[in-house]
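Table S2 (text version). Query chain:
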Amino acid sequence: MEIDATRVCFKAFQPGIGPYGEPQLVSALKQRLNQLALYKGLVITKRTPDLVIKGHWALEFKIARPFGDNGKQAENWSVNLLHPYEGNVSALGDCLRLLGLSVPERKAVVVVGYEHTPPRITLAPLLHAFEVVAKHVASVQLSEQIRVTRLELVHPVHQQLTVACWEVLGHTPQGKTSFLS
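Corresponding structure-token output:
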């Protein structure tokens, strides 16, 4: 909310955090977290994972945005979460990359979603589908979802923010399987 309140524009888009791309969002989060006494100097950005809070978390981020800055429904907006093929940049691929990392930090995937208030297209079915595909197709064991929604963003289309996250715990009991099996 603090980053959004700065009303900083990304490229030629309208003010607010809603139009930020993933790299810009992660960079802004790194700056903000490093200002907090609890995490001062512990937060770094990397290619994989996107953000590390040293000694705490290795985090991968994905953005879910059903509508563009212009108010028109976006095409393929849900692919960032559900594309079920190894080696891709979806949240499912991020889970597998996190499982392959040998780091001391706990691992989590974070979805940052933007909706109208009230939502014209709700993120809830997409978030549920992500959990189902992660467990039953990708054999990824996730923690329970933690979800927080904040209203009154400054952008006229991206009016509310929903952040959903899951700790990536390992492979499901049926074992490691390939997406293509």
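Notes on Table S2: Residues 2-171 form one domain. The longest strand covers residues 160-171.
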